[in-house]
Write a structure and sequence with these properties.
The structure is a homodimer of 200-residue chains. The first copy, chain A, is of the alpha+beta class and 200 residues long. Chain A has 3 helices and 12 strands. Chain A folds into 2 domains: 7-42, no CATH class; 46-186, Nucleoside Triphosphate Pyrophosphohydrolase. Chain A has a 4-stranded mixed sheet, with helices on both faces. Chain A has a 3-stranded antiparallel sheet with strand order 1-2-3, with no helix packed on it. Chains A and B meet through β1, β2, β3, β5 and β6 of A and β1, β2, β3, β5 and β6 of B.
């Protein structure tokens, strides 16, 4: 069996919900020839950033998330606005949410699909070394965010114990650990750049 | 600053979209006292399963995903139905999507929030050792799924090269690698159970 994409017969934008739009596609199965409705969330790409200080601490954020009506422990991130590049968004969100800036170029940790079944968008992850506190947070009215520094070597334990539970935050750290081929809990404190993923 | 949950003032279910419902909450910021609308996708919990054969190969699935209108490489999984436990769902989806069954108890790889900003649901991950082909697939009309066996030790490379790009699939493998404290690409072929996460 070879898998083929479905043919889209019609497309209708239903309603806007501030950070996403609901779209209904009618598409036809190449296997059965029958048509079905698909409901898709359209939104701009998302960006997450792992800011790392010279002491190998991650600048993390505690914030209220209304989906689960609870406080989460995450890395900074947000939605690409206007003509921003993913790197622009990462640097802007880092500054707005934490007041931190970074001394070095961002290092790409790749992209993933948050949910390819019902979302069309992608999420980029970045590493920023040399993060330092440069000023105050600039939060919008719907954001309550607290900055917290955690040793990078403790991250796998926080994930394992459920303290870090946002799927896209796990993805960023997994990509970081894969890039540096680090054994969990045994992190090289100097984090040399690998040649294949660009340097700073 | 200490982060507090927001108080929900009203809640309204807008519309049903087959695998999720759209809900609008009006909630009040404990910091500013102002009220805002939040748009939440309600759905049942999701389950993903890493089926591992006695040869340390992962039973993976290639399928069409309409959100990105492309073919993805994933592990089996799906939505909890009716009174199912997460384990029931994992075993059912494995069988329906691949025809594989498993000789051993499932091992929990924890839970994550797919997106705590706009979704209330959680996603469970499991490892199933001793996976074996027991019969045919049982696909529904909207599913075109092809089974493919991949060595577990190749998974980090497939992720790094972008061939595996579904965030919740990365999460399951990351939790597996954390649980077994495996160095990327250097996987113990016998995968002994750790005492702390239950045995088979």
């Amino acid at each position: 069996m070879s898998i083929k994409p479905w043919k889209v017969l019609s497309r209708k934008r239903d309603k806007s919900y501030r950070i996403f739009n609901l779209r209904t596609d009618r598409a036809c199965s190449p296997r059965t020839g029958r048509a079905y409705d698909f409901f898709i969330l359209e939104s701009s790409p998302w960006v997450n950033i792992i800011p790392l200080t010279d002491k190998n601490e991650v600048v993390m954020v505690r914030q209220y998330r209304h989906g689960i009506q609870d406080i989460t422990l995450e890395i900074p991130g947000g939605i690409i606005e206007g003509e921003e590049t993913p790197e622009d968004t990462a640097i802007r969100e880092l500054c707005e949410e934490t007041g931190y800036r970074t001394t070095s170029e961002l290092i790409s940790l790749g992209m993933v699909y948050p949910n390819p079944a019902i979302q069309q968008n992608i999420c980029y992850s970045f590493l920023a070394k040399g993060a330092y506190l440069a000023g105050k947070q600039h939060l919008d009215e719907m954001e309550d965010i607290e900055t917290i520094l955690l040793p990078l070597s403790d991250i796998p334990r926080f994930i394992r114990e459920g303290d870090i539970s946002h799927s896209l935050v796990l993805v960023a750290f997994y990509r970081l650990f894969i890039e540096y081929e680090m054994k969990m809990g045994h992190v090289d404190p100097h984090l040399p750049n690998r040649g294949t993923i660009g340097g700073d």
